[in-house]
Every structure is written in C-alpha cells, then in structure tokens.
Amino acid sequence: MAEGESGATAVRAEDEFDVERVASWLGENAGIGEVPEVRQFSGGASNLTYLLHYSDRDLILRRAPRGTKARGAHDMGREYRIQSRLGTVLPYIAPLVAFCDDDEVLGADFYVMGRIDGVIPRRDWPADVPLDAEKARRLCHNFIDTLVELHSVDPENAGLADLGKGFGYVRRQVDGWTTRFRNAHTDDVPEFEAEMAWIAEHQPDDVANCVIHNDYKLDNVVLDNADVSQVIGILDWEMATLGDPLMDVAGSLAYWVQADDDAAMQAIRRVPTNLPGMVSRREFVERYCERMGFDMTPDRWRWYEAFGLFRAVVIAQQIYYRYYHGQTHNPAFARMGDAIGLLGSRMRATIAGE
Fold it and tell me: Are strands 231-234 and 221-223 parallel, antiparallel or unpaired?
C-alpha cells in the first residue's frame, strides 16, 4: 500500500503495538488468518485509529491512547456496544468484527470493525474530488438531516434506553466540562472563570432526551464516492449518549468555521466548512431546528454557541495537557495551546453578544 493511501500513514513510534499478537487474536476470534499491514490515521486527537490492510479487505482498529487524562472518555467496550445496537436501526454504522478486553493482547481494550469505503473530509477538501457550490450546499443539508435522523432514533427500540442519565443533561454537562477544564488546566492558558460563571448562570433546561453523537463533525462522517453530497457512514462514537440534541448541534458548530470568519479562526479550521456553497452556522441552526420542530432565536442560541465553544476549549485543553506533561510527543498536540486561546476569544465575543 502506498504511503498516505486511504488517509493513513506510518504508525507513530509511541502508538505502535504487537501486530502479530493482534493478528493471532483475530485469527482465534474472527477467523482472519493473515497478518495485516498496519497504518495509522493521524487526523484524530482522542482514541487511536489504525487501518489493517489485508489482501482481500481493509479493517479498522480502535484503541485508547496512552497517558490519557480523561479515561472515562475512552471506553472501548461502550463504544463497541453503542455501534452494535445502533446498527440495527441506522444505516450509517460500520460492520463490527470483534471486541477485546484482554490486556495481554494489546495492553488496552480495543475493537475491530469493517471499513466504510468513501470520502472523509479533512481540513482541506481532497483536490481530486469535484465539489461545486451547489453540491457543497446539498452536502451540508444532508449532513444536517442525518443528524436529525440520529436524534429521531427511539432509544428503547435501539436497546439504548440505559445509555444516559435522563433529563438534567445540560446541568450535568455544564458541571462536568467546568470540572474537566479545571482539572486539566495548565499555567500557560487563561482560566476562563468569568465565562464559566456566565454559562452556569444562564443555562437552559433540556429540550429533549435522545441519542446524541457528541462529536458530529464533517471529519467524522463518510461520504459516498459516487455522490459526495450523501452521508453513508458516521464514525467515532466514543462520546455518544442520551442527552439534549441542541447540545449536540452546539458541539458540532464549534468546529464550523465559515468563509467570513477571520484569519485566526481559518488557521485552526479542521474541516472544509469554508468552501463556496457551505451553509453558515446560522443557516445550520435554522434548518436543524425547523426539521426538529424547535423554536429558536439568535439570542437564545447564543448560550448554546458559547457552551459549544467552551466545550471545544476543554477538549483542546485535555489534549494539550497530555503534551504539556510529556505524555505524548505528537507535534499536532503542541498547537492546541494556540487553539485554546482563539476558541476562548470567540467564546468571550459570543457571550458579549458581538
């Protein structure tokens, strides 16, 4: 396999594992009698994702990173169970192969699933995949409508009624992310105490309790090779739960850098939402709320936007904490400090109504 094929590159030294030991386990538990060539997907900053390339197929292996600060966010068994159950009611789930909780195999829990063949948008749209403004707009609409489809799943029918803790999700999220930020704070970033106080004071009640993805971004979906405006897969279910659907939208839009955002925000953009034809954040909220039947005003949405940005700040801070304390040497994590400052500035401006 050529370097960079399928978006995967050579495995970083700190993320290597015993390939033959894993291959032996897969032979015993999934009937796969071949040692694969292994590559690593470098786009993610949380759970580690590898491509297992065989002579007749590609599989995906997911495992938690070493030296994690927030261990509760890296439950491989939970992630595997969520997908296995959602796969019975949604067409966007990769086929699952096997789950391993034997530390002797890889040193941590992991699971293997099939690979959905398609286009995964990264920071820059692939140059060899045509995307005009009209198709980009259709892609955005389908991306939003797919989220509506997820939020419309009946948790009981999917066997996921026990996934969350019921209503009170907004309050738990505000309290939880505030605690996570303080626990992962490093001396070289702002403390954001005033912003956290505003978020806590103005928090709304839950609008609903449904299955939410909690990391729904363009680089976590797979698009159809034949028509890239169509979503055919949803990836990275590690943070999925039952909760308030507007909080899912808020988390998604924290990464939605649109064409008229300033150069600093463009510099930390992770998905190609700035392309001609892509909808604005306002248009995203309007279409979503219209589809879901939620009443929304710009002033009401201000809280959700501020919280989504705060949550992105905390996620970046947790990742940066690992780099700051020498738990990882991934150079991409060194830039998280700058991202924290920029996201924090945008959060402050949102709170101020600017």
Answer: antiparallel
- Together in a domain, 85 and 192: no
- Indicate whether 119 belongs to any domain: no
Query: With helix as H, strand as E and coil as C, how does 97-126 read?
Result: EEEECCHHHHCCCEEEEECCCCECCCCCCC
Task: Please say if the pLDDT value at position 189 is more than 60.
Answer: yes
Domains: count for the chain: 2
Residue 52 near residue 58 (C-beta atoms within 8 A): yes
On whether both 149 and 66 belong to a single domain, the answer is: no
Has residue 303 got a pLDDT over 70?
Answer: yes
Tokens 């009640």 map to which residue? Answer: 205
Tokens of 198: 């505003």
- Residue 128 in any domain: the answer is no
Residue 127 lies in a domain: no
Kindly give the residue spans of alpha helices, DSSP state H, lying in the chain. 19-30, 76-86, 103-106, 133-151, 169-184, 193-201, 245-253, 263-267, 281-292, 298-324, 331-334, 336-351
pTM, to two decimals: 0.90
Mean pLDDT, rounded, for 161-186: 95
Residue 73 shares a structural domain with residue 155: no
3-class secondary structure, 73:
helix
